[in-house]
Amino acid sequence: MTTEQTLTQRSGSQCELCNSTEGLVVFAVPPASEASNADQCILVCSNCHDQIQQPETIIPNHWRCLNDSMWSQVPAVQVMAWRMLNRLSSTETWAQDLLDMMYLDDETREWAESGMASEESDTPTLDSNGSVLSAGDTVTLIKDLAVKGAGFTAKRGTAVRGISLTGNPEQIEGRVNGVRIVLLTKYLKKS
Ligand SMILES: [Zn+2]
pLDDT tens for residues 34-56? Predict the structure, then answer.
């Protein structure tokens, strides 16, 4: 069975967010990019799809449908409902109320949040001099940093090789003394 057939059956041939039957398409929920695994996809109508893809065209009232669909048993639907409510919650109090009621298990929440981070990734991660940092770069600490929890101080001048970026442009991850820690970019410079 193709992904589309699986989703059509799962949804009863309706948009899994708003129940519309107009222009249904398979949408791979980021970070999934291919529609090969039905568990990572949802069936959405063209109206929902356009608004997901172009956040500047969002019509808040359309998304009151999430009042129902956020209770879906399908994790991919929960993830999209959570992300849309998050987007709307900055301006819509009803969206914040729904978000507060929503329950996601740990795995689903992680998925939902990871997608939000990748959407914000066009903000570059910069070091203390304003140089752009990329995954795999080596950086040097420009001050002594007490690593709480690991019980040591990372000394000024320590090189951290092969850093990873995080969803937050003010933080990177790297290994110091064999411990993977989060470092604030304002205390680093690119080597
Ligand atoms: Zn829809």
Answer: 888 999 999 999 999 999 988 88
